[in-house]
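dumping the sequnces here before i forget
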Amino acid sequence: MKPILSKLLVYLAVSLVILFSSCTPTTRTINETYSENILINQLGYKPNAEKKALIRADVDVFELVDKTGKVVFEAPAGEFKYWELSGDSVRLADFTSFNTSGEYHICINGTELSSPFVINDNPFNGLADAVLKSYYYARCGIDITEKFGGKWNWKAGHPDTNVLIHASAADKNRPEGTSISSPGGWYDAGDFGKYIVNSGISTYTLLLSATLNSEFHKLQNINIPESGNNLPDILNESLVNLKWMLTMQDPNDGGLYHKLTTKNFVGFVLPSETNEQRYVVQKSTSAALDFAATMAYASRTFEQYNVPDLAAEMKISAEKAWQWALKNPDVIYNQPKDISTGGYGDNRLVDEWFWAAAEMYLLSGEESYKEVMLNNYEKPVTPKWNVVNTLGIISLLTSDKRGEFEDFEKDFIEYADNMLAIEKESPYLVSTNKFAWGSNSDVANDGMLKLIAYHLSGDKKYIVSAQNDLDYILGRNATGYSFVTGFGSKPPMHIHNRISSADGVEEPVPGYLAGGPNTVVLNDCAAQNVERSLFPAKSYTDTVCSYSTNETAINWNAPLVFLTAGLN
Ligand code: 9MR
Ligand code: 9MR
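..and the predicted 3d for all of it:
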């Protein structure tokens, strides 16, 4: 062939390819094997939200493909960033600028697909409802029926109408072995215990969501027995536990039993399959203060919802608990020798005093409470069952007394800004940099605080950051799991929860946040030879034995209720 002719042919071929590829889009094969190398929020993103995934592979570009496989977007991946907490490096895949509604995957190397996700106005459809509904499934002493529970249903157990006073809780009015009635409430976690300290923060957090996300909750119907009455379902559900909490107060002196449990944890059976004797154990100052704080906030809430009798009863109970605490200021819970269920022991009560005093001040307006409160002030931190000062700060700053506490507000915003600064440096885009037992709830609580910072300041940067926390929980984390049962393409299937293990349904009870990765306890599945990463952010196993990473708990779900409601 003459050189000129062959040159012409090559030129023609190249032009044809260019022409062809510019009108025929590139397509990728869609299958249901999702790459471990792409970490993404497995539910999805709102069109105007920041949209980010993380990539663990050595690729320079990533694509967005729609559900037919058509490549609709392509962009360079960021630089590798190493996280000492996960022991791996990730690159950012930012597709914020793409905002067409639809169902998509991230694709790398032309073949590796992320799990599917949506871009639309309502990507968390159902999530906020399920996360709240988990409390219905945790109700103690009632039949969980098909009508409300669907395929997850079981018979009532633990009527708790014959609970004995344990030796540690005995006094002359109620000697050891006296029988009391303390029915209802929620099971704390994967176990069947009911604990006042943990009930406090959990119930308060739901009530807070009811107040600060009221527009969302007023319209929410989660199909529980009370749905359709004149209260929002979040208040209906909270009342279940509040009514139980009231029964844990000794009417003779106002003190609170720390917990109601069997002597030892029972096996993995349904509630109706176990009837070991249950006891109320030791009164404690932490239980009295957490109770006072929660009841005081509940009283104000139910006053606003026009349930004055209940509000009045709660107020009186809060005052009595407070008085008991004043007379018994440092009764630390000390687990009796014959009891081995959860401890929730706390030997530092400065934060409990602050929280209770703040709520009592807001309830009554009396200066004496304010004084105790100011004497016990500490700067805000992420709340936990044993670190509750920030709950008091939030109540003050979202009340009509906000103006009195400008310094607290400065500290609160400073803490929020500090979280944003940590997140900015974090390869995994989260502000959590410690992995405790229940680490997922720390992420959710950070998100909640950020939404409250937005509420106070009006600055949208806090919403963006809270969204990152939800993205982490829904799959953009070092384990690749979407940590809420029933949501995402890789959710936990084997949670450490007695009911869910014993109910005979393969899918776990939906809407539960698994505790999450940490290296606090590594030997819970030693007998099963389960491997666990030594990197805290990766140390998670979806195995029933793993109470340290895969249990469910009322205090872990509560901030997720707030976060999902708030972001909705
Ligand atoms: O099921 C229990 C869980 O709720 C607790 O968080 C955990 C730690 O206290 O303990 C679990 O119970 C285990 C017990 O401590 C040891 N024997 C096996 C039990 C079930 O895993
Ligand atoms: O959430 C609690 C965690 O912070 C503690 O480190 C741990 C051990 O004391 O206990 C956790 O709470 C458990 C409680 O004691 C019993 N019910 C299950 C709770 C969640 O694991």
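Residues 16-20 have pLDDT under 50 and may be disordered.
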